Automatic annotation (TrEMBL):
One of its GO terms (molecular function) is hydrolase activity, hydrolyzing O-glycosyl compounds. Residues 275-422 form the Glycoside hydrolase family 2 catalytic domain. GO terms for biological process: carbohydrate metabolic process. Residues 698-796 form the Glycoside hydrolase family domain. Residues 163-264 form the Glycoside hydrolase family 2 immunoglobulin-like beta-sandwich domain. This is DUF4982 domain-containing protein. It comes from the Bacteria. InterPro entries: Beta-gal/glucu_dom_sf, DUF4982, Galactose-bd-like_sf, GH, GH2_Domain-Containing, Glyco_hydro2_dom5, Glyco_hydro_2, Glyco_hydro_2_cat. Belongs to the glycosyl hydrolase 2 family. Residues 628-684 form the DUF4982 domain. It comes from Pseudoclavibacter terrae.
Amino acid sequence: MAREPFNRGWTVKPKTSIFAQIGGAGSAGVEVDLPHDALFGEQRSAANSGKNAYFPSGTYEYSKSFDVPAEYRGKRVSVEFQGVYRDAVVFVNNAYAGQRPFGYSAFTVDLDDHLEYGTDNTIRVEVRSHDDSRWYAGAGLYRDVTLIVTDLVKIANSGPRVTTPDIDADRSIVELAVPLENHSPNRTTPVVSTEIRDGQGALVASGTTPTTLRAGAAATARLRLHITDPNLWSVDTPHLYTAVTTLVDGGTEVDSRSTTFGVRRLQLDPIFGLRINGVATKLRGACIHHDNGLLGAAAIRRAEERKIELLKNAGFNAIRMSHNPASSALLDACDRLGMLVMDETFDIWTESKSSFDYSLSFPEWWERDIEAFVAKDFNHPSVIFYSIGNEIPDTGNPLGSEWGRRLSEKVRELDDTRFITNGVNGFVSTLPTLLPLMKSRSQNAEPEGGVNGAGEMMNQVNASELVTKATEESFGVLDAAGLNYGDSRYELDKELFPNRVIIGTETFPPNIDRNWKLVQEHDHVLGDFTWTGWDYLGEVGIGRNQFLDEQPQFEAPFPWLTAWCGDLDLTGFRRPASYYREIVFGLRTAPYLAVLRPEAVGRDVRPGQWAWSESIASWDWAVDEQTPMQVEVYSPSESVELVVNGRSVGTAQTGPDNRFRATFDLPYERGTIEAFAIVGGERAASVSLRSHAGTTALSVSTDRSTLDADGGDLAYVDIELRDADGVLATSELRQVSVRVEGARLVALGSGKPDNTERFDAQTHATFDGRLQAIIRPTGPGPITVTINADAAEAVTLQLAAR
C-alpha cells in the first residue's frame, strides 16, 4: 500500500455559490500547503465575537488537481482527512464524494467511483466556520491529508491494532488484530506476517498466519507474539516498538503497514490511585486547546511536537485535550517524548452552547465520531484516558446520564484497555435547577462573568447535595470522575463514594498550591489539570486581572486576541505562573523573581479566576527612578531575602505555609535585584534580574538549523533585544522586519494578548523585548533569514532543508 502526503498544491478561496460565479463573482484563490487555517488570514473586527478572538465567520473552498495514472485502474484509491473544520463536504471531479460535520474527526473518502484514469482529476472540499465554537477553532484543512492507494486485497485503512494484555518483568505478550479486506471477485488466502523491532531496530518478535477471505469479504487476522525483557513505556522512559506487518497474496507482497506502540500496564483504584507499570503516578496536568498560536489552528507536525516539548520542560507530565480529539501528530509527539494524554471527544452533546455547534449533528453522528476517535488513539501508549465530554449540561438529569452511558459503553466496546472519564462541572449540570433560584434572588440570570466566572460560589454548589444527587448516575458510568472546578468534592467524595476515583480535570491556576496539596494528600485524587498550560486564541481576556476603577466585563474588548491564562504564552515563552507551578510541584528548588508591571502597582484589583498577577521576570522598566514597584518572589524555602544593588531590603516568609510567595514594595532604581533562598538561616540558591545598560542589539536564535523538507517541519526563530551582557531589554519597543529566501515566512508575532498586528506580515513589533518568526521549508535547499530593526545591525541566519 502507498500512503503519500497529500498536503501540497492546494488552492483556497472564499466559497461563492455557483450562481454568483455565473456573474463573475469569486476569486482564483491562493496556493497553500496543508495543514492550513483559512480563517486566520481574515481581518479581525470589534463587530465580531470575542470568544472567536474577534475573527469573522467564513466559508471556504479548497481544491487540488492531481494525476491519476492508468495503472491505478484495478486498485483502491482513497483520501484520508485527519481533521477538517467544519461541515466538510468533499467533491471529486465535481461530484459529491463524502462529508463530515464534526471538525475534529479523521475520515476517509473513497475515490474509485469518481476517478478518470490516465489524466488529471480534481478534488474540492467546502468548509465553514460560523458561531459553532466557544473558542477560536479556525477553518479549513487544518490537519494532514493523505492519499492512499492499495491493491484489491489489502490491510484495511484503519490498520493493525496492538495490545499488550499480559506484562511482567521477564516478558510481554503482544497481540495484533489486523483487519483485512478483499475487494476482488475471487476467494484468496493471503499470509499476514509481522516483525516487531525495538527502538534500536533489533528484531524482538515475529509471527505469521494465513487468513482466508471470500470474495468481497473482510476478516481479522490475529497474531499473539511475545517480547522477552520488554522495555516499558513511561513518562521518564518512553520506549517504543515498531510492528511491521506485511500481506502476501499469491506469493506477492500486496500491502504493508508500520505500527508504533508501547508496552505499559495501567491500574486504577482509590487506594493506590493511578499506577503505570506498578508505579503510583500523580498527573501534573495542563489543559490545552488545539490551536498553535501564531499559526492559528494549523496542526503542522513540528508545531505539535514543540508544544509537547515545551510543556514537558515546564514540569507537566500530562495534557488534557480540551475539548476535542487531538491530532495524530500531537499524539505521535506525546508517545516519543513521554507525555500522558487525556483525549477528549466533545464539548457538546444535545444541549447547544453556540448557535450552530455540534449539537445539531450529535444525535446522528456521535457513534461514527467515537469510532474515529478511538481508532486514531488505539495504538498510542501516551493515551491513558478517554474523556467523553466537557461541562455537558446533560449530565445532571437521568436521560442525559443515559447519553453518557451510551458513549462510555461504545468506547469500551471499541477499546477496554484505557480508562473513561468526563469533565463534569456540577454547577453546569444543575443549571436548569439553579437558574430559577438565582432569578428569584437577583435580577441577573447568572453570576457576573458567566458560568465559569462564578468562582467560589461554583465550588460551593459543586459540593452541595443537589450536585451529589444530580451527577451520581453520570459519574457511575465512568472509571474516574472528572471534576471541573470541583476541588470542594475531593474530601467529601472519599466519604460519600469510597470507590470513586477523582481527577481535577479543570482547575483555577492561582489555586495550584492548595489543589496540589489535596492531590498529594488523597490517593483517590489522581491529579490536577490547570486551565490552561498554553495560552490560546479566543475566549479573550478571561485570564486578565481587572481593576476596580474599570467597568467590569467578562470578555475583554477588541483588540484582545488571546485568553491570557496559559502558563506559556502564545509563542511558548514561560510566564511567571509556570515557574511558580514548578516550585509547587517540587521540581524547582531555586527561587524565582517577577516584577509587577508599573501601571498595575497601587491599583485595587478584581482578580480573575484564571489570572496571575500582572508580572514578568524583568527589572528593566521605562519609568523614573523611585517609581513605586512591587517585586514577587516564589520559593519553596522557609524564607527569602531581597537585595537591590548589593543592599538588603529585607526578608519575608515563603514556603508552603505562605503559599510559596512573598512580595516586596520598593522604589525603582536601575541595576540589579537578587533574591536568595534562606535555608537554616543561611543564604542558599539565588536568582537575579538586571536592567539593560547601553545600546541593545538583535539577539537571534533558532530551535533548529537543519529542517526536513517534507512540509511538516518548521524553524522557530526567537528574536530579542539584548545589551552587550545579554540582558533582555523588556522596556524597548521596536519594529522588526524579517525576510526569508529559500523558504516561507509563515508567521511573525509575539505573545502580546491584545495584539492589533497581523501575524502574516513581514514586520511586527516586539513585546517585552522579544518576537518570534516561524519558517517553513518549501523544498530542499539553503534558507537565508535576514532580520532588521531600527537602530540595530541586521542579523542573518543560515538554515538548510533536506
